[in-house]
Specification:
Layout: H1 2-34, H2 40-43, H3 59-65, H4 71-102, H5 108-118, H6 127-136, H7 144-154, H8 161-168, H9 172-180, H10 185-193, H11 198-213, H12 217-222, H13 232-239, H14 245-281
């Protein structure tokens, strides 16, 4: 039995190593290509056919961070959208989730079920309608940045489900004791519930941050044809659509690395709370 266990564990580790190599291969390739020299005479004579560059260079990073491109402006747009969406969406979801978890009012169950069913429909169904609404208020193209913030924040309340599940795990006896002592709902929420809900707050903020940070479809739709309103995903896609695919692909890789850095650091720093928030919010109240 001991020999079988050792063999089983060995095979499992080998399988996991193989899967990890396959999973990491694209990311390693992305990093290596970002350091490839852009000069065709130095690096290659035709198609990029080497995984490891012959000459490592910072040309691609110098290009995207210089005045030759508007990458910094696109990066700033992405940061602005992600920051405000994260801030407002987190606040709205926490407030809605607390209200649905602690308060009982007419239509509460119907509202929760309606939002749950409505959330099953893909957002693409509303793209045309949302575009014309935003256009009426001047929130497309030149006004795409506030328009994208508004669209992302407007439906935030529908993302209550996991956060509500976490609040349901907090004993209601704490609320009742505080109410007896004269505390208002707002005071209970801000001074008692919020301090005990750090994992779910971080989970909600990370999810809210990821959506606009990686958004391409709706962002390209709203900012169509207006370069200064692009986010990084939309702008960099234009790079690989150019005739100079060979050169701009390495620049695309460099830009992708810079985009991935904030998200990677956030997940590394907050991974513990992220997992706690998911598992805590999955408990049925």
């Amino acid at each position: 039995m001991k020999t079988k266990k050792v063999i089983g564990n060995t095979l499992a580790y080998i399988l996991l190593i193989v899967i990890s190599v396959i999973w990491l291969f694209p990311f390693i390739g992305l990093i290596l290509q970002s350091f490839r020299s852009y000069d065709p005479a130095v690096e290659y004579g035709g198609m990029v056919d080497y995984l490891v560059p012959k000459h490592f260079s910072l040309d691609n990073y110098k290009f995207i961070l210089s005045g030759q491109t508007n990458y910094l402006g696109w990066y700033k747009n992405t940061l602005i959208i992600a920051f405000f969406v994260t801030l407002f969406q987190t606040i709205i979801i926490l407030c809605v989730s607390y209200a649905l978890s602690r308060m009982r009012f007419a239509g509460r169950t119907f509202l929760m079920r309606f939002w749950l069913v409505l959330g099953m429909f893909p957002g693409f169904l509303t793209m045309i309608c949302l575009y014309f609404l935003l256009k009426q208020f001047g929130l497309t193209q030149a006004g795409a940045v506030p328009g994208l913030i508004l669209v992302s924040v407007a439906s935030s309340g529908m993302g209550y489900y996991i956060c509500k599940g976490y609040f349901d795990t907090i004993p209601k006896a704490l609320d009742e004791a505080a109410r007896i002592d004269g505390a208002s709902r707002a005071r209970i929420f801000f001074t008692m519930i919020i301090p005990m809900s750090k994992p779910i707050i971080i989970y909600t903020a990370l999810v809210a941050f990821m959506a606009p940070w990686c958004d391409y479809v709706f962002a390209s739709y709203v900012a169509f044809g207006h370069d200064s309103s692009f986010n990084v995903a939309v702008a960099m896609t234009r790079w690989v659509w150019t005739n100079d695919y060979q050169g701009y692909f390495t620049r695309f890789c460099a830009g992708g690395i810079l985009v991935a850095i904030p998200v990677t650091l956030l997940f590394m720093a907050l991974q513990k709370y992220y997992v706690e928030g998911v598992t805590g919010g999955a408990v049925k109240g």
